[in-house]
Amino acid sequence: MTVFRLPDAAAYGLSRRDIAPQRILHGYYSSTAPTPAWERAKAALLAAGRDGLVCGPTALDLVGVSLPSYFDKEKLWIQVPKSQAWPYRPEVRLIRTDRTGPITHIGGLPSLGLAHCWLQLARDLSVDGLVEVADAMTRRQHPITTKDCLAEVVAANPGVRGVSKARTAVDLCVEGTDSIPETDLRLLLVKAGFPTPEVNMMVVDPSGQWYYFDLAYDEYMLAIEYDGAYHVGDREQMFRDTARRRTLEDMGWRIITVTAADLYRNPSGIIRSVYKALLSR
């Protein structure tokens, strides 16, 4: 895979007509189509010059952070110094700033430090959106940062746009989550006035078999599980899930199952169920 400019196309035996579908941004093309995200970021950095950095959601996407679906991954976020000339390119969200920050590399591409990339999102995102991304960066599996690191970056940059939202989001972030819907479910409960539930709490049955709950109130033996319908059609998994639920209920656990329709179309129903369950425990 190679990124090249129009005058170099002949070296690859390509005509203008050949490379038209492989245009990444004005004046830059890829030897493959569709163009991988890394190639698109490389082209934008070539256009930006030596001081350009990948930043914002582009950098987070490149390292595998699960971003909310409303992000436009086709828009490349590039940071350059304020003094640097840059012709308008609709494919690029340009961040002009002389504010310094740590520099890392993603597959050889220079990038702003990942915690700083998260802070850049505060100019656009709501508190909930910032929490979704912060949770995604501190996942149970393959975390790329910590809550403490995010808090340090926020504290060190008091003048950044949206920093008050970022400060609130850090307080609401919980390390060790598994998915965006689970984050949204936790935020729903917290905003409704419930205590912050424990995430991915492990429970061991009398035989020594262990299980995880998405969200749980251990004191009340109440668990709230998000069912993403990942195993629809998998009969064996459905049997295992049924047996798991029966075992946990026999131990005294009350389990509330939440679907995407519940969470995003009827959240008040979830709040009522949790409220009634807590009252009865």
**Mean of pLDDT:** 90
Q: What general form does the structure show?
A: elongated
Largest sheet: 4 strands, mixed
- Radius of gyration using CA atoms only: 23 Å
Distance between the termini: 60 Å
Q: Which sequence of strands runs across the widest sheet? A: 9-10-11-12
- Tell me the total number of β-strands: 12
- Measured by DSSP, the beta-strand proportion falls in 15-25%
H/E series, N to C? Answer: EHEEHEHEEEEHHHHHEEEHEHH
How many structural domains in the coordinates?
2
Helix count?
Answer: 11
Poorly predicted parts: none
Structural class: alpha+beta
Query: How much helix is in the residues?
Result: 25-40%
Can you describe what's shown?
The protein has 281 residues and is α+β, with helices and mostly antiparallel strands. The chain folds into 2 domains: 36-172, no CATH class; 180-280, Endonuclease, Chain A (3-Layer(aba) Sandwich). 39% of the residues lie in helices and 20% in strands. The protein is built from 11 helices and 12 strands. It has helices spanning 16-19, 37-48, 56-62, 114-120, 127-137, 147-156, 163-172, 180-191, 235-250, 260-265, 267-280; strands spanning 3-5, 23-25, 28-30, 53-54, 76-80, 92-96, 103-106, 109-112, 198-204, 210-217, 222-227, 254-259. The strands form 4 sheets. The chain has a 4-stranded mixed sheet, sandwiched between helices. Helix 4 crosses helix 6, helix 5 packs across helix 8 (180-191) and helix 6 (147-156) packs antiparallel against helix 7 (163-172). It is elongated, with a radius of gyration of 23 Å. The N and C termini lie far apart (60 Å). The model has no long low-confidence stretch (mean pLDDT 90).
